Amino acid sequence: MNKNKIFQLLLIVLVFDFSACAKSKSSSAVKQTASEQAQPVINPELEKLNRVLFSMSDRCKAAIPNGNPEEFLADLHKVLDVEKNFRSDDLSLYFLIDKKHKVGSDYVPKDLMAVKGNDLWNVSRNDLSLRPEAYAALEDLSRAALNDGIKLLVSSTYRSYQYQEGLFNRYVKQDGEALAERYSARPGTSQHQLGVAIDFGSITDDWGDTKMGKWVYEHAAEHGWSLSFPQGYEDVTGYMWECWHFRYIGKEACRFQKKWFSDIQQFMLEFIDAWEKAE
Ligand SMILES: [Zn+2]
After folding, report:
1. CA nearest 54: which of 18, 115, 2, 8?
2. What are the helix (H) ranges across 56-131?
3. What stretch of H or E contains 130?
4. What is the CA(252)–ligand 1 centre distance, in A?
5. Distance, CA 228 to ligand 1 centroid (Å)?
């Protein structure tokens, strides 16, 4: 029996326990037996976890390893609690944006900070900016890179809806719509519009094999940055592999993603989205 099966069976058992529990309550509504009174308190969130997990795609479910649901919930709450330290007057750092989940043409992150070249990093252009949380996390990442003798090159950051629209239309003209869809986001669907994504280096596949590319791949998560479009997951993320594109989600979420979602950001953000929308 593989690990995923065990976790799924465990969940089925939990569902079963819950229905049994509900029945016993309704059939003996007034007087509980001694054995019922002795039953341990069941975490009410387990039932919600079952519902949310069963609503996820088969591929996402298959990515979740064997584990204790109570531990999963404890880890989830750590991730959700961390976000309370961040500003509450802007979109969640875990906001799901993809081909199906969009923001409006007027959405601009609050208090964007200009990202100019400095002692910590180089830039490819002078009109870059990030959300404050992502800016601080870039400082953190860049300091660690410098300690290892690498100065990062930041090439693309926040993009407005209008800028993304121009970019996407240009790619459609160049490569046709079908191909452009695989590597460029339609306006309103880009992580770049959220001000939390960075494209590093040359923005080409071979950057992944450079010293800088290897270092970022190895250490990004330690500083809260997550690879958004990994190799082999185009049918999940909607995009071809992009070794240069990282999204800031925070260190705790990076740990959660690695431990419970096979390190696939899309699965974790889909789960959090479903969790927050569930009753
Ligand atoms: Zn990008």
Report:
1. 8
2. 58-63, 69-82
3. strand 129-130
4. 22
5. 9
Are 51 and 275 a contacting pair, CB within 8 Å? no
CA distance readout (Å), 269 to 100, 101, 275: 13, 11, 10
User: Rg (Cα) of the chain, in Å, rounded?
Assistant: 22
Cα distances from 171 to residues 40, 159, 230, 234, in angstroms, run 59, 16, 21, 18
Classify burial at 41, counting beta carbons within 10 Å of its beta carbon; exposed 0-12, middle 13-18, buried 19 or more: exposed
Tell me the CA–centroid distance for residue 156 and ligand 1, in Å. 7
Q: Helix, strand, or coil here: 153?
A: strand
Rounded-to-integer distance, Cα 122 and Cα 143, Å = 13
Are 24 and 225 a contacting pair, CB within 8 Å? no
Cβ atoms of 251 and 239 within 8 Å: the answer is no
How many CB atoms neighbour CB 192 within 10 A?
Answer: 22
pLDDT of residue 37: 62
- Over residues 40-96, the pLDDT tens digits come to 777 889 999 999 999 999 999 999 998 999 999 999 999 999 988 888 899 999 999
Residue 245 pairs with which residues in a beta bridge?
Answer: 199
Pairing, β 225-227 against β 129-130: unpaired
Tens of pLDDT along 163-180? 999 999 999 999 999 999
Distance 203 CA to ligand 1 centre (A): 8
